[in-house]
Amino acid sequence: MATSPSVRIIRTVKFSAAHRYASAKLSEEENQRVFGACYRPHGHGHNYRLDVGVEGQVDPVTGMVMNLADLDRVLKREVVARFDHSFLNYDIEHFAETVPTCENLALYFARVLPPHIEVATQGRMASVRVWESDDLFAEVEL
Amino acid sequence: MMRLTRVVRFEAAHRLVSDQLSDAENERIYGKCCRPGGHGHNYEVEVTLTGEPDPVSGFLMPREEMDARIERALVSRVDHRNLNDVVDEVTTGENLAIVFERWLTAEFPGANDNVRLHAVRVYETARNQFEILSPASQAR
Fold it and tell me: CA angle at residue A114 from A112 to A117, to 5 degrees?
């Protein structure tokens, strides 16, 4: 029997967080020049949106790629519980030294989420898109 | 490799009409889009860049730089203008996507840059979107 194509489910979660752009590898003047208003000492914040794509075969009995409750549980535990109402630079260890740009958030989720999602859903994490505002997003295809 | 997308908006007038068609044919093919005075849209364009973020700044491209290039290549040429004055082709969403991709490629050529243009998506209305993958991006 021919295998049917895999289908990608994209689930969205939201979190609100503060961040600040500053690099220890740059001087005060360089930080100011490169990051501008994003370098201000007390940070600022966004309502982030994260779209996670998970692929798999549609189960012929249930008609589903996965049980969405399994995916939601992982996203709630690994994303919302950790990131919502946090200050990314201080509360997420990875961003103590990595600048929490939209790009680096996408790369981070692309690296840390797949094993959790694959264990919980049996699906393959295929894409991640991080929206910082309604006019900017970064994405990674896995 | 990752992608970063900036969404920009502009307002412009246009009229769908081809100088290679008769009045009757233009009327038949383009219908109300061909009415002589033209009409307008609130356009939205998604500009997708691809590359590697700078290891220090974490930016694929600093936002001011990116916005300045998009403004120069696209928005300044079309915002509050009649598209028929600035584009030689019939100003369908399809042709606008092709033309905007060409204009934007000139600002994001990718040669000595760590970023290059990946795709352009033009929304004429919420219901009509036109997408083109950059040939330069496809070739690699």
Answer: 115
Minimum CA–CA partner of B49 in chain A: A138
Q: What is the full DSSP assignment across A55-82?
A: EEPPPTTT--SS-HHHHHHHHIIIIIHH
Pairing status of strand B115-123 against strand B39-51:
antiparallel
State which residues form the domain around B80: 2-139
> Which of A23, A103, A107 is nearest residue B56 as measured by Cβ atoms?
A23
Domain locations in chain A?
7-141
Q: Which residue in A111, A110, A102 sits closest to A128, CA to CA? A: A110
Q: Which residues contact B5 (CB under 8 A, 6 or more apart)?
A: A136, A137, A138, A139, B46, B47, B48, B49
Complex ipTM value: 0.78
Q: Judge if pTM exceeds 0.90.
A: no
A131 backbone dihedrals φ, ψ, rounded to 5°: -100, 125
Superfamily of domain A7-141: 6-pyruvoyl tetrahydropterin synthase/QueD (3.30.479.10)
Would an 8 Å CB–CB cutoff place B56 in contact with chain A? Answer: yes
Could you give the number of structural domains in chain B?
Answer: 1
Residue B9 distance to chain A (closest CA, Å): 9
Q: Per-block average pLDDT, block size 10, for chain B (140 residues)?
A: 95 96 96 93 97 93 95 97 96 97 92 85 94 78
Which chain A residues are within 8 Å of B60, Cβ to Cβ? 103, 138
Q: What's B99's domain CATH number?
A: 3.30.479.10
Please, what is the Cα angle at B42 between B36 and B43, to 5 degrees? 100
